[in-house]
Amino acid sequence: MSEPLRVLGIDPGSRLTGFGVLDFNGDKATYIASGGINCANGEFADRLKIIFRSVSEIVAEYRPSVVAIESVFVNRSAGSALKLGHARSAAICATFSFDVTVVEYSPREIKQAIVGSGAATKEQIQHMVKSLLSLGGEPSPDAADALAAAICYGHQRRMKNRLSDRQLLARRR
Amino acid sequence: MSEPLRVLGIDPGSRLTGFGVLDFNGDKATYIASGGINCANGEFADRLKIIFRSVSEIVAEYRPSVVAIESVFVNRSAGSALKLGHARSAAICATFSFDVTVVEYSPREIKQAIVGSGAATKEQIQHMVKSLLSLGGEPSPDAADALAAAICYGHQRRMKNRLSDRQLLARRR
User: Fold this and answer.
1) Domain carrying residue A79
2) How far is Cα A132 from Cα A24, in angstroms, rounded to an integer?
3) pTM confidence score
4) Cβ(B21)–Cβ(B6) below 8 Å
5) In tens digits, what is the pLDDT along chain B, a chain of 173 residues?
6) Residue A78 and residue B99: Cα distance in Å, rounded?
7) Which residues contact B14 (CB under 8 A, 6 or more apart)?
8) Which of A86, A98, A101 has the highest number of chain B CBs within 10 A, making it the mutation to test binding with B?
9) Residues linked to residue B146 through DSSP beta bridges, in sequence order
10) Which one of A7, A48, B95, B106 is most buried, counting C-beta atoms within 10 A?
11) CA dihedral for A68, A74, A75, A77, sign (positive or negative)
12) Phi, psi dihedrals of residue B144, rounded to the nearest 5°
């Protein structure tokens, strides 16, 4: 049996950053951990430091091979885009000391992979993440979004593998 | 004689990030180094990695006590604010492994400190930085903006020291 592939999903935010860790073994996803990094208080540089250090610690502890992170939908004010950009970059920079691949998905891609619709609500994401991972309870919205980013990675990998299997089959015929 | 205080100024940008190192000895500023980090090409995450690693190397080499960084004037599109936020955060995160104080100045504060007017042009900044530091030639616009952030720190420190000297004098009377 091959080693499971470990994926860390991150839902970046300037006040709360969600994270979720999953192991993929073939098509099967196993829940490992999830939670939220609270960085709502203090000076802005200190809040970035909390995100940077917390994500570094999470990567050091769980050693994922892949980090899946939500990209930012730019339909917001320049001020909030600026803040979110800082928070998201701090989470990405925290992975640079480790041998991980960073992949980015739009909120729409993630929702599509989880609920089948790009217009899914937060509650639908929480509900589907609980169901897909057979969790005992619903994760918090931020943890659910982070787990959803990790599930989206697994989903896209499965699609790619099936596509290349089919191409292989087509070539053999 | 006391140890000079070393300040690293940073002018963050998503394509070019300027840096400048100065030593302050009392009121006197001595030029140590300056330059630009080119991160215009490649995937966005790779460009952040270039900023993060380059600023880490600069801090490791010059060991400043203070990092002075320009804050972002938010009169721009959400898309460009998002990119600039990422770049600026990567530069700030690169200082977190070192014992440095990060201070932020608005573009207006920096221009005011260098040229005496918050509406100074890039050329005026370059010219004044060359003159204030007695440089042989004009630094590039990005290096000049970074050196200007460092000069702004020195300027504000001088003002604070004089203010507290006066208060001390007033108390002694």
Assistant:
1) 5-172
2) 13
3) 0.89
4) yes
5) 578 999 999 999 989 999 999 999 988 999 999 999 998 888 888 999 999 999 999 999 999 999 999 988 777 788 889 999 999 999 999 999 999 999 999 999 999 999 988 888 989 999 999 999 999 999 999 999 999 999 999 998 888 887 777 776 676 66
6) 31
7) B39, B47, B80, B83, B84, B86, B87
8) A86
9) none
10) A7
11) positive
12) -65, -45
Tokens 């829940």 correspond to what residue? A31
Q: Is A70 an annotated catalytic residue?
A: yes
CA B159 to chain centre: 18
**Closest residue of A to B77, CA-based?**
A78
ipTM rounded to 2 decimals: 0.87
Is beta strand A66-70 parallel, antiparallel or unpaired with respect to A101-105? parallel
Query: How many domains does chain A fold into?
Result: 1
- Please answer whether residues A118 and A108 qualify as being in contact, where contact means their C-beta atoms are separated by less than 8 angstroms: yes
Cα separation, B11 vs B151, in Å, equals 13
Give the residue from chain A lying closest to B104, CA to CA.
A45
Nearest by Cα to B10 from B114, B98, B88: B88
Q: Is residue B82 within 8 Å of A84, Cβ to Cβ?
A: yes
- For residue B76, what is the domain's CATH number? 3.30.420.10
Phi-psi region of A42 (alpha: psi -120 to 50; beta: other; left: phi over 0): left
